[in-house]
Structure formats: C-alpha cells, structure tokens
Specification:
alpha+beta, single chain, 246 residues, seven-stranded mixed beta sheet, 12 strands, SH3 type barrels
Length: 246
C-alpha cells in the first residue's frame, strides 16, 4: 500500500504537496494532516479543518494524460473517495457535480484539485476532506447546518489513517485505469453514485450567469447537463452548482 506522511497540523495540505511537487516529488506522494489552519475549498472558499473533526489529505498525481483531460480528475477523485469510504465504513456517499460527497442529503466531504502545467512536466494535487465526527464550535453554524459527519465522534487515529490509505490507493488505481482505458468506466461509476440526478439544481457561472434546472447527469466528457425551465439542455463545465432552494 502506498505510504504517506502524517502531520499533526499544517496550513494547507494542498499547499504542502504543491511545494513538494515543485521540488520534484513523485506521483502518489501524499500528506495527511490532523488539522489545517488554512484549508481551502473550490472557488476560494475556506474548508474548516479543526482537530478531531475530519480527514484532511492531499495526493500528488503526475498522470500520463493530455492537459485537456485534467479537469476530469476531480470526478475521478470523487469516485475514489466514495468507494473507499464505502469499503472502510459501510456508508455509501453520493456525489454532487463536480466535487462534493453527500450523505443523507448533507455534505460529508469535498475535493479540491489544483493543476499545474509547466515545460518541465504537468501535475495535479488532489485535496480530500471528509467530515468524520461531530463538529466543534470552531466550525461556523451555517456550515454545520448544511454538513454531516460519518460518525458522532471521530474514530481512533488508526481508522483515520486506514481510511486515507484506502482513498489514496483507490485514487492511484483509478488514475491508472484512466491512463490505460480512458474515463468511460469511471464515469459509469460516477453516474451510479450521482445523488442529484433528476433534482433541481442552481448553477452560478462567470459574469453573473445563472441557470436553474433538473440535473440530467454527466456526459462522456464529465460535463453536467441541466434541463432548464424551458426544456433546453444546458451544458455546464465550470462554476458552482447547488441544490435549488425554491
């Protein structure tokens, strides 16, 4: 099983692994932190990461893929995390495009993929956060209302390490599968775990663009389709998607 470093606290595991990548770290290099001071989510959001509430880890990928395919790694990571959580805990998280894990209608985890393209080589750092135990007062109330943890209390450290090891291994396995066989099999797995197919979603895109419609799932390139109120299928490949509130 691949090895990874464990630290008690850091600023951001993604920042740390990005720094290691710049120093030449190899494919599969990973870091698990017991807490983060400056955890990040997509679109500049904070990922609240106090001690004794969650899993916070990052994995370096140097896949043999065209640059245009790198955005699909977020979907691959979601499937990897969901599969590992299911195997390790018995829970079956569902996925929300492009990067969230849900359980019982609330968010239990998320993915942040940061890509770097250089003349010396391309790479991606995949950050994974999973809510493991009851939230502390360090987590804002508005976050707690929309989130859920896998357990009432955080499991012993050895179970935390085992879960991250399983996610780490599954991510490397699925990335290798994509290199060899493409993304069709992974996207089929993603569709099986799509927790929002047929549900009303609200998309917010660049320059104030907005669409509300029913999810029609993902296509063969990993884009999301929304059927808007006029029945037109709208192809979504960026921006933010949340459950529609009205």
């Amino acid at each position: 099983m691949p090895q990874f470093e464990i630290v008690t606290e850091t600023g951001s595991t993604n920042d740390d692994v990005l720094a290691l990548a710049r120093q030449g770290a190899t494919h599969g290099t990973a870091l698990l932190a017991l807490s983060q001071r400056q955890g990040r989510g997509r679109l500049g959001r904070s990922w609240h990461s106090p001690a004794a509430t969650g899993l916070y880890g990052s994995v370096l990928l140097r896949p043999r893929l065209d640059r245009a395919l790198y955005p699909r790694l977020t979907l691959v990571a979601g499937v990897a995390a969901a599969m590992a959580i299911e195997t390790q805990t018995g829970f079956s998280p569902q996925l929300k495009w492009p990067n969230d894990l849900y359980l019982d209608g609330k968010k239990c985890g998320g993915i942040l993929t940061e890509t770097v393209f250089t003349k010396d080589g391309d790479y991606a750092v995949v950050g994974i956060g999973v809510n493991l135990g009851s939230f502390s007062g360090a987590v804002p109330q508005e976050v707690r209302q929309k989130a859920i943890a896998l357990w009432q209390t955080v499991p012993p450290r050895h179970r935390l390490e085992s879960l991250f090891a399983a996610i780490h291994q599954q991510l490397l396995t699925l990335t290798s599968e994509c290199e060899k066989h493409g993304f069709a099999g992974i996207f089929s797995q993603w569709r099986r775990r799509d927790g929002f197919y047929g549900q009303r979603l609200a998309w917010a895109g660049p320059n104030g663009a907005k669409v509300i419609g029913k999810s029609a799932g993902i296509d063969e390139e990993g884009n999301l389709f929304l059927a808007d109120e006029g029945g037109e299928l709208r192809r979504i490949n960026c921006g933010d998607v949340q459950p529609a509130t009205v």
